Amino acid sequence: MPNTLRGPVRFDEFGNVIGNIYIRKVEKKDGRYVNAVIKTYPDVSQFWTYKQDEFLKNPVYSRDYPPAKNLEQ
C-alpha cells in the first residue's frame, strides 16, 4: 500500500507491517500547533536494525525476557 495515512506500508513474510516511522515535534505555525516531521526512518520492520535470523533466535518477549538487570531484588 504505497499511500496510507501513515505513509507507505507493506507486509513482510510474517504478516507484520514494514513502514516509515516519523519523529515529530510540535511547532506553532500560523497561530496553530502542528506536528512537524523532523526525522523519518524508512522501511522499519519488527526487527528494526537487528538481523532477522539473530533476532528470531531469542526467546519470545515476555515479562521474564529480556531480564530486568536494574531492578531491586
Using brief descriptors, characterize the structure shown:
73 residues, mainly beta, flat
Number of domains: 1
The percent range for strand residues is 35-45%
Main pleated sheet = 3 strands, antiparallel
* Oligomeric composition of the shown chains: single chain
By helix and strand content, what is the structural category? mainly beta
Strand order of the largest sheet: 1-2-3
Order of helices and strands: EEEH
Distance between the termini: 48 Å
Shape: flat
**Unreliable segments of 5+ consecutive residues:** none
Please work out how many helical segments DSSP would assign: 1
Protein described:
The radius of gyration is 18 Å and the shape is flat. The mean pLDDT is 92. Helices cover 7% and strands 40% of the residues. By secondary structure, it is mostly beta strands.
